[in-house]
Write a structure and sequence with these properties.
The structure is a single chain. The protein is of the alpha+beta class. Helix content is about 45%, strand content about 15%. β1 and β2 form a beta hairpin.
Length: about 140
């Protein structure tokens, strides 16, 4: 880990502390361009914003998709206090960000949480109506 990575991760951790102090879960992230300049930063606001999707990684991915060209997004690095969840990882991929560097892994986070603290996954059923569901998707990609 180089000095810039350490500095950016420490800022992400500081943002996590700010989130916790505000009453939100302790997660923070920042987005840095290819030259190391901070483009944007955010913290978790799921409680204070009354929005279960208000993770900092998702908010920064949305910002990048609206504010950066694909070429600009591709050379960014997101520094985050914890490894992005599945929702955020999907948004990061769709926004075209180039790299994610995290301080705490998902496994390390799970080891810290008390039993039952992790969200329970909803049961999923399917696939059904394959041909009908496939038609608009195929039309979109052609």
């Amino acid at each position: 880990m180089d000095a810039d990575t350490e500095r950016h991760l420490r800022r992400a951790i500081a943002l996590a502390g700010e989130a916790r102090a505000a009453g939100d879960p302790p997660f923070g992230s920042l987005l840095v361009d290819a030259d190391g300049a901070v483009l944007a930063e955010d913290r978790n606001t799921t409680v204070t914003g009354d929005d279960v999707t208000a993770h900092p990684e998702l908010k920064l991915a949305r910002w990048a998709a609206r504010s950066l060209t694909p070429d600009e997004a591709a050379v960014t690095t997101m520094y985050t206090s914890c490894q992005p969840c599945g929702m955020c990882a999907g948004a990061i991929a769709r926004s075209g960000l180039g790299r994610v560097v995290f301080a705490l892994s998902a496994e390390q986070l799970d080891a810290i949480k008390p039993p039952g603290a992790a969200p329970r996954a909803a049961r999923q059923d399917g696939p059904y109506l394959h041909d009908e569901a496939r038609a608009p998707v195929v039309a979109y990609y052609r």
